[in-house]
């Protein structure tokens, strides 16, 4: 049996194809637990997990906490505004103090790219990157892969387009790396101000116009437009963005009839995606959220040592 | 006491030659240069002989761009510790940038720095004063008063002069006092929030980029202002192919411009940042391989006149943090020489030309003494062992800070003896000079 040999999950970049397949297969096994009447197994009983969130989050925070609880781990979530992070303590000091209490895993969401790498260097506990700056959001990419695999039965050979602010999106980076590793073709699309330099080095194609970019694609991933980006001169207005780059029914007519539509959330309805598309028959946005719990259960399980072949329940 | 430096390869960087010579130092001056073996020991008096066989004897090295952090940030460096690092790196003189706290924009700060330098009493310290009060880019500092106090140049290093009118007037006014103007070229809007070079690596790491154009634009502006005013501008820490190309064209067109680069810009590229190493974070950022190549070519062709370290000490408080939060800058006083010697080994430059960029060229630009070994002149000398190989570790570093991307790396070549005005201010353990 293939073993998962990582102390930390810092990014998709460090994972092999076998690692990813193992995570997805493990998530498959855990997926069913969430639909049980009693949604709890004792797998991680006695293990403790601390989630440090230096940025606001709803989905990811709840998802990790839910995943840990369904595996019977003790969890604790700290948000930036309620801890000594606001008292000027450095990230390393905060982490070392938490480590002194001997947790098994620290889940970190942080606005600075590379913050989990810094943490991992200083800690014995495993570190899970729950989103770092504009760098990576590996658990999101894994749940995206999981969703695609469930819906389409495979990932290899599929054609995927990602539309939106590629330059500032950690989801885009993790998705691109993950999809390329798994053998999908990837096109990125959006205004040129939102396409980062040398993105082609990731093995993706750039097609600025979403109408052209989404043709013949099996999967359409729409990224959230962060409203604060308006201050950065990346586009003149949300109104104009929605007209030229937003996904709406009209645009969708040019897409493949069986294309699935994904979005990492939270959605700005009427900006990057219209409400009718987000709620429409091709949307799998809420499936992504359900799948997220299974993926995070798999990650916690594998990182805490389940990869060594313990019993699943 | 007489010091007899025997059998070294003596470099004359101005003439671009090296030959085996003995040097006799007496009363702080170069008493004699003579053919090896022709010196006869006097009947009486102390003579210390230093065997420099197989070594290079160079005019004392001059670093025209350092940050000594005093006053204000003594936890990073002091004038005393910076002087030690300079001496150990083979430098007999350094010029320190004004971005201290408070900024060196007045006679009192300049005099304070010189007072500390006298107390440290190791290498020559030449203060560079700010162009604008508080480096705020609004009004000029008192160039005349600062020069009288001992400032050798003006620069708003670290905080570029964004206002072109102010830069123009600074260059015109500096002309009256003959003060060199040094420009840190950075378009602050284009480089806004950037923490590393913009390119494939910044995209991969999800870090905000600083495009090469943010340097190039200001280099072009300053070249145009040098043309307008007819007064020279010195471009600090050139890092891009664009800058090198524009400076080359300006020089060909007779515009008075000189330029420096730092060793890291000809030794490392932006891939050094991978892993979020904050010791690879500096301004300007490490660029791409083609920029590194262009900087090396610029040095070889004389487009870049000077190698200066931009020695920028920071403590773990500023460096052991998230990459985005980390301070810009690395130390460089003890790595400049080995990295420059690597250029010579790579065939980029002949040794005398490389030494010129570390001695007579900066002396000429700053209009300070040094850069030559001549009979009757004050004895500022550096003896270099070009073959010594060692690992750069914290024990070797004399600076108060250890923020270097070369930490733990193997280096080749080092200063084994540094002499200022005939006094030995640094001597490596390996050199075991014999007294008679």
Task: Describe the structure using short key phrases.
heterodimer; A: 313 residues; alpha/beta; five-stranded parallel β-sheet; four-stranded parallel β-sheet; 11 helices; globular; B: 436 residues; nine-stranded mixed β-sheet; eight-stranded parallel β-sheet; 13 helices; 28% helix
Q: Could you give a quick summary of the protein structure above?
A:
Chain A is α/β, with parallel strands linked by helices.
Secondary structure topology:
The complex is a heterodimer of chains A (313) and B (436).
Chain A: H1 17-31, E1 48-53, H2 59-70, E2 74-79, H3 91-99, E3 105-110, H4 115-122, E4 126-132, H5 138-152, E5 159-163, H6 170-181, E6 185-189, E7 205-206, H7 210-213, E8 219-222, H8 238-245, H9 249-252, E9 260-262, H10 275-278, H11 285-304
Parallel strand pairs in A: 1-2, 1-3, 3-4, 5-6, 5-8, 6-7, 8-9
Chain B: E1 2-12, E2 17-26, E3 29-34, E4 47-51, E5 56-59, E6 61-66, H1 79-88, E7 91-96, H2 107-120, E8 124-129, H3 143-149, E9 153-155, H4 164-177, E10 181-183, E11 196-197, H5 200-205, E12 209-210, H6 213-229, E13 233-235, H7 241-252, E14 257-261, H8 263-267, H9 289-300, E15 306-307, H10 316-319, H11 336-345, H12 351-356, H13 360-366, E16 381-391, E17 410-420, E18 423-427, E19 434-435
Parallel strand pairs in B: 1-4, 1-5, 6-7, 7-8, 8-9, 9-10, 10-13, 11-12, 13-14, 14-15
Antiparallel strand pairs in B: 1-2, 2-3, 4-19, 5-16, 16-17, 17-18
Helix pairs in contact in B: 1-2, 2-3, 4-6, 6-7, 7-9
């Amino acid at each position: 049996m293939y073993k998962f040999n990582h102390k930390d999950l810092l990014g998709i970049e460090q994972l092999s194809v076998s690692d990813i397949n193992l995570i997805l297969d493990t998530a498959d096994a855990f997926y069913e637990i969430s639909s049980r009447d009693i949604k709890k197994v004792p797998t991680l009983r006695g293990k403790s997990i601390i989630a440090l969130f230096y940025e606001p989050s709803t989905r990811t925070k709840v998802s990790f906490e839910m995943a840990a609880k369904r595996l019977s781990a003790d969890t604790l979530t700290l948000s930036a505004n309620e801890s000594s992070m606001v008292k000027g303590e450095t990230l390393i000091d905060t982490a070392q103090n938490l480590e002194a209490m001997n947790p098994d895993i620290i889940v970190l969401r942080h606005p600075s790219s590379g913050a989990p790498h810094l943490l991992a260097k200083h800690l014995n506990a495993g570190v899970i990157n729950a989103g770092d700056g504009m760098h990576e959001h590996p658990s999101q990419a894994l749940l995206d892969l999981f969703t695609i695999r469930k819906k389409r039965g495979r990932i290899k050979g599929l054609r995927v387009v990602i539309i939106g602010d590629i330059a500032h999106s950690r989801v885009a980076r993790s998705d691109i790396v993950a999809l390329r590793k798994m053998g999908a073709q990837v096109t990125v699309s959006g205004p040129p101000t939102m396409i980062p330099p040398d993105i082609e080095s990731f093995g993706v194609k750039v097609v600025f116009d979403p109408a052209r970019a989404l043709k013949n694609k099996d999967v359409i991933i729409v990224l959230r437009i962060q409203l604060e980006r308006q201050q950065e001169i990346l586009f003149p207005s949300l109104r104009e963005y929605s007209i030229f780059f937003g996904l709406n029914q009209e645009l969708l007519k040019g897409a493949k009839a069986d294309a699935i539509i994904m979005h990492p959330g939270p959605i700005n309805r009427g900006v990057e995606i219209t409400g009718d598309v987000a709620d429409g028959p091709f949307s799998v946005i809420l499936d992504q959220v359900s799948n997220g719990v299974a993926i995070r259960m798999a990650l916690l399980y594998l990182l805490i040592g389940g990869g060594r072949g313990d019993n699943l329940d | 006491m007489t010091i007899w430096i025997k059998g070294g390869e003596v470099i004359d960087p101005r003439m671009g030659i090296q030959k085996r010579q003995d040097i006799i130092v007496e009363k702080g001056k170069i008493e004699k240069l003579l053919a090896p073996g022709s010196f006869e020991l006097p009947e009486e008096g102390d003579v210390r002989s230093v065997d420099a066989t197989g070594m290079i004897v160079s005019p004392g090295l001059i670093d025209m761009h350092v940050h000594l952090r005093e006053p204000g940030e003594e936890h990073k460096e002091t004038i005393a510790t910076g002087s030690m690092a300079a001496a150990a790196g083979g430098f007999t003189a350094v010029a320190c940038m004004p971005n201290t706290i408070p900024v060196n924009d007045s006679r009192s700060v300049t005099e304070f720095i010189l007072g500390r330098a006298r107390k440290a009493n190791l290498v020559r310290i030449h203060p560079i004063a700010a162009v604008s009060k508080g480096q705020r880019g609004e009004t000029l500092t008192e160039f005349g008063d600062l020069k009288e106090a001992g400032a050798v140049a003006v620069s708003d290093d670290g905080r570029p002069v964004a206002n072109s009118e102010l830069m123009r007037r600074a260059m015109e006014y500096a002309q009256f006092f003959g003060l060199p103007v040094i420009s840190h070229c950075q378009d602050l809007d284009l480089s806004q929030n950037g923490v590393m070079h913009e390119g494939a690596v910044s995209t991969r790491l999800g870090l905000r980029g600083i495009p090469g154009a943010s340097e190039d634009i200001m280099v072009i502006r300053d070249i145009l202002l040098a043309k307008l005013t007819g007064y020279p501008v010195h471009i600090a820490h050139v890092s891009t192919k664009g800058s090198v190309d524009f400076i080359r064209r300006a020089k060909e067109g007779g515009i008075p411009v000189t330029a420096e680069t730092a060793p890291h810009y000809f030794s490392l590229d932006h891939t050094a940042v991978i892993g979020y190493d904050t010791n690879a974070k500096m301004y300007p950022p490490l660029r791409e391989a083609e920029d590194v190549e262009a900087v090396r070519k610029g040095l070889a062709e004389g487009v870049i006149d000077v190698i200066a370290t931009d020695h920028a000490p920071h403590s773990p408080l500023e460096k052991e943090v998230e990459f985005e939060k980390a301070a810009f800058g690395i130390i460089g006083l003890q790595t400049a020489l080995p990295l420059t010697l690597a250029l010579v080994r790579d065939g980029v430059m002949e040794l005398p030309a490389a030494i010129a960029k570390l001695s007579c060229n900066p002396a000429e630009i700053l209009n300070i003494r040094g850069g030559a070994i001549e009979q009757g002149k004050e004895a500022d000398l550096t003896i270099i062992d070009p073959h010594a190989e060692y690992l750069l570790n914290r024990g070797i570093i004399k600076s108060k800070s250890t923020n270097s991307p070369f930490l733990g790396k193997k280096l080749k070549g080092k200063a084994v003896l540094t002499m200022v005005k005939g006094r030995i201010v640094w001597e490596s353990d390996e050199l075991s000079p014999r007294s008679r």
